[in-house]
Design brief:
The complex is a heterodimer. Chain A is α/β, with parallel strands linked by helices. Helices cover about 45% and strands about 15% of the residues of chain A. In chain B, the strands form 3 sheets. In chain B, strands 1-2-3 form a 3-stranded antiparallel sheet, with no helix packed on it. Chain B has a 3-stranded antiparallel sheet with strand order 6-7-8. Chain B has a two-stranded antiparallel ribbon with strand order 4-5. The chains are: A alpha/beta, B alpha+beta. At the A-B interface, β1 and α2 of A face α4 of B.
Chain lengths: ~190, ~375
């Protein structure tokens, strides 16, 4: 029970413009003061219960987000803060933005706004705690915390995303092979 | 390497997710014992590619995207963009627009510097000073919310003028709040400049000579703390030409000097806002905008973090051809790498903070 009363929060800036990030930080400072409830903004994913993520997902930070999520112990909840984290926001049409956070990890609560105000961030976290409790109850019964597993094919535009990823991987593989071939040729030539 | 046989070289990854970093940047720190021999930055975690959006958005609509380059320097980015467009289209904005823009730019500088002071206190582990700085910052945010309607993203600039006007009562509230704030800020900043523990972390740490700072192309408070007297506000864009100001400089070039320069600038901003309100002209806040821009212009403005450039190229259609934005953190990064070399590992987090890095501006 204690955990849902004072959860520890991990904050990561996806590709946000900082607006939501400083509002997340502002919600821990004296005006809003989340810390009086024992809600601590920790820097360590292994101590965190709630994952606050701001900003959309791009090719570079996708692995970081997935890694942070996988390092958090179960049960855990994800709160997408700001409209960019929900679905890409004003940057939706940018070439480097894949979309919202739910493209790479399951999201439990969406907090819209540009930038999301501290009040709405706090409400999002409070709502997430109910979900955290539900997940904890499921784990007590020996069930997996998530009701249904997250898979790339289940989300909106998931197939396009999967195809894009396959294309990128194929290209990376091709480049790697070409580099290796060049390297081998170079070795062969300088053998004597 | 005979003399180094006992010293082991190790590489410590720093970031992209790190407790002191509100934003993701990755540094590979090459350590020899506790000393940093080299730092290799790798960026791209926040790259969105918003400059390319000019091809899809109307040039008037793009102000909103330009503003969201960064949520902290948001007012400055929209100001730089509209300034460039207005110069291309030969629009002379009204005096009231110029004065209000100047006032907001200075309020944004105050909120940025107070935020930075808090983050600095957090970096050297003075948690209550961090909280105090952010408490003071909330008062500035209240003023911004009162006048523009937003806390961090204001969306108040548009090509040819402003979206919102400010009433006389609002200006009086600003003056009153500034008086109270100045007294409270003095208490907090005296701690930054006089507390023994704080001084022991900052004095003499991360020195950068004026020659080297200029050579590496640093800008903003980082450059001024090394003793170079350069401030784009002296060019007199918007209403700065009518105001009485002098760039704040310091000669030491260490972390303490950077802190001192920013604290002085905080009070300078208060002074500038008082001057602006005293001289505030009446009249309309916008001029009509007809047609599309054709031509190119490079606008320079002084962001809280330093000099920022805005290059706009248009071809007479409603979409621009190119928008380029060079931000202060980008030009300060070489200076940062220079200061990190030879530092202790424990000081690295603080040194990164003293350039006031804004990664989302840098990577856009």
């Amino acid at each position: 029970m204690k955990m849902t009363k004072s959860p520890w929060v991990l904050h990561y800036d996806g590709s946000s413009c900082n607006g939501c990030d400083i509002e997340v930080l502002a919600s821990t400072t004296p005006r809003y003061d989340l810390e009086r409830f024992g809600i601590i903004n920790t820097g360590d994913p292994k101590h965190a219960d709630v994952f606050l993520i701001t900003g959309g997902i791009n090719f570079q930070n996708r692995m970081v987000v997935q890694q942070l999520y996988s390092q958090m112990p179960d049960p855990k909840v994800v709160v997408a803060v700001g409209i960019c984290a929900c679905d890409g926001g004003v940057f939706k049409d940018c070439y480097n933005i894949l979309g919202g956070v739910d493209k790479v990890i399951p999201v439990d609560i969406y907090v819209p706004g540009c930038a999301a105000r501290p009040e709405s961030i706090i409400e999002g976290v409070v709502k997430a705690l109910d979900i955290l409790k539900k997940k904890r109850d499921r784990m007590k019964q020996g069930l997996p915390p998530e009701e249904k597993g997250w898979a790339i094919a289940n989300i909106r535009d998931g197939k396009a995303l999967a195809a894009q990823e396959a294309r990128i991987n194929a290209q990376l593989k091709m480049e790697d092979e070409a580099r290796e071939a060049r390297y081998r040729a170079h070795e062969e030539a300088h053998k004597e | 390497m005979a003399d180094n046989s006992l010293k082991k070289i190790s590489i410590v990854p720093f970031g992209p997710q790190h407790p002191v970093l509100p934003e993701p940047i990755h540094l590979d720190l090459v350590l020899q014992d506790e000393k940093v021999v080299d730092a290799l930055p790798s960026i791209g975690f926040v790259h969105r590619g918003l400059e390319k959006l000019v091809e899809k958005r109307d040039f008037k609509e793009f102000v909103l995207v330009a503003e969201r380059t960064c949520g902290i320097c948001s007012f400055g980015h929209s100001l730089g963009y509209v300034e460039a467009i207005e110069k291309i289209m030969d629009i002379e904005t009204t005096p009231r627009t110029k004065y209000l823009r100047t006032m907001w730019a200075e309020l944004a500088r105050m909120h940025n510097h107070l935020m930075w002071l808090g983050l600095l206190a957090d970096a050297f582990g003075f948690e209550s000073l961090f909280m105090e700085s952010w408490r003071l910052r909330e008062k500035v945010l209240d003023l911004l919310e009162l006048t523009t309607g937003g806390r961090v993203i204001f969306s108040v600039n548009k090509v040819g003028g402003l979206r919102r006007d400010v009433t006389h009562e609002m200006l009086q509230t600003i003056l009153q709040t500034l008086d109270d704030l100045e007294k409270e800020c003095r208490v907090a900043t005296d701690t930054f400049l006089g507390d023994k523990d704080v001084l022991s972390r900052m004095v003499g740490v991360g020195k950068l000579s004026p020659e080297r700072a200029e050579e590496l192309g640093c800008c903003g408070p980082f450059l001024r703390a090394s003793g170079v007297r350069r401030d784009v506000r002296m060019l007199g864009y918007e209403a700065y030409g009518d105001l009485d100001m002098e760039p704040v400089t310091s000669l030491e070039g260490d972390c303490y000097a950077r802190c001192k320069v920013r604290i002085e600038e905080l009070y300078q901003s208060m002074d500038l806002i008082r001057q602006v309100i005293a001289k505030m002209p009446g009249g309309p806040i916008e001029v009509p905008v007809k047609g599309n821009p054709d031509g190119e212009y490079m606008a320079r403005i002084e962001q809280p973090r330093g000099e920022a450039l805005y290059y706009v190229k248009a071809n007479g259609t409603k979409n621009l051809v190119r928008y380029r934005n060079r931000t202060p953190t980008f030009s300060n990064l070489p200076g940062l790498i220079e200061t990190i070399r030879g530092a202790e590992l424990a000081d690295v987090a603080m040194m990164i903070l003293t350039i006031d890095p804004c990664i989302s501006c840098t990577e856009r």
